[in-house]
Amino acid sequence: MKWAIVVCAMVALSECLIQVPLEKGKTAREILEEKGLWEEYRLRYPHNPMSKFDSRFAVAGQSMTNDADLAYYGIISIGTPPQSFKVIFDTGSSNLWVPSIYCSSPACNNHDKFNPSKSSTFRNNGSPLDIHYGTGSMTGFLAYDTVTVGGLAVTNQIFGLSESEAPFMQYMRADGILGLAYPRLSASGATPVFDNMMSEGLVSQDLFSVYLSSNSQQGSVVTFGGIDPSHYYGPITWIPLSNQLYWQITVDSVTVNGQVVACSGSCQAIVDTGTSLIVGPQSSIININSAVGANSQNGDYVVNCNSIGQMPDVTIHIQGQEFTLPASAYVRQSQYFGCRTGFGNGGDNLWILGDVFIRQYYSIFSRAQNMVGLARAR
Fold it and tell me: Which positions make up the signal peptide (predicted)?
């Protein structure tokens, strides 16, 4: 697998785009379904997609949750010589952490683990790191080393090394997480990777962008320092952030067949690559799923797979623009459990626009302007 792609315009080297390919692998749900373990797992580790955004679920540090449908990960390296790790590039959190050789949890045993003694540039910070999940936690410690992302070597980057991990991580393909939200969110005050990229002048623009391929395992990519026009068409809609903590924006409404079914009078939403679904308040999600003909079943909203072609679009209105999701985009098919929608129950007020949305709309995250840009993905 290629670690990075450097795309340069003919005009100047400064126009280079630093790109990290993302692999679309099997999700934890798919792996568990194949093993016949999904129902047991789902009941034992219930998914609470809002826990990473709700301080009530976190005893300390940042909270996260067991999203069994996450599929995209990219490769980074840490240390000298480099040790490689698969990470989720998560715009809903701010810390970088990977498993360490000091972790004996089942979740660590089938993932790559960082060995500090094999890196000449490693420095132990000595501070503990405690990241709590809705159903478990990751505990470990902080350290410094060179972190290479897309060929960019970020020196003296602070990161977390796990010593214990929640059981649900065992079935995730990614080893760890690289957070891309704002530094104010970071546990233990650790400076996020992209902030160091900016301060060290490693990117030509203080922004990054995400393209998620809808169908193939290849083609998805995170681009640091620029916007890749080959991944979108039409205009970019720039949306100012309503809260510079997450990538949070204001949504005007959600409609089906021209009728408002959710978010009447506006609501707050976070554009989050670390959440697989579109998540909202339960009453609103019930309205959306009812409008598209889905029925609740064991925590999912299921539809007849033969009806996808006749199901209506769901339109999310943002900044006076329409962001439409056809049924082919919001319905997911499983060979074991049929078809279900990508609209999931969440918290009281906040929405999450996860991978179901981002696959349709190329997403640009501008720290320079504190805006999110959205354009039709190719």
Answer: 1-16
